[in-house]
């Protein structure tokens, strides 16, 4: 069972950006299910790398979209993006081969991001 699924009410009314957000939910659920099913955490590094690359791609697209729309809260919003990007990079740096601890951090970090940023802040633009 997925940890946390995307729902239509999370839509930001832009089909491309909704697809990006769904992909982030998928990454979270894949990591979570991996842990729940097998306690297998070897795949966490690819997941971190995927999250890192996809986040860069998504945030760039989102920032472009906010600029085009002249969204007023863009500066504070971009500051949140930078902080999240920094936390993902920290996760990468702290990863040393094993690990349940980093896996848990990844789940918490991405879970909180989806709850507090994607389904709250992103819906303001
Ligand atoms: Fe977003
Ligand atoms: Fe955002």
Task: Give a written overview of the molecule.
The mean pLDDT is 91. The chain has helices spanning 15-38, 44-69, 74-94, 100-121. It is built from four helices and no strands. It is mainly alpha-helical.
Low-confidence stretches: none
Largest sheet: none
- The SSE order reads HHHH
Could you say what the CATH topology is called?
Four Helix Bundle (Hemerythrin (Met), subunit A)
Radius of gyration: 15 Å
The shape is globular
Number of strands: 0
Question: How many helix segments?
Answer: 4
For the structure shown, list the relevant keywords.
mainly alpha; 0% strand; single chain; 74% helix; binds fe (ii) ion; 125 residues; Four Helix Bundle (Hemerythrin (Met), subunit A)
Characterize this entry briefly:
About 75% of the residues lie in helices and about 0% in strands. It has about 120 residues and is mainly α. Bound molecules: fe (ii) ion (FE2) (2 copies).
How are the SSEs placed, and which strands pair?
Blueprint: H1 15-38, H2 44-69, H3 74-94, H4 100-121
Helix pairs in contact: 1-2, 1-4, 2-3, 3-4
The chain binds fe (ii) ion (FE2) (2 copies).
One fe (ii) ion is lined by residues 21, 58, 62, 118, 122.
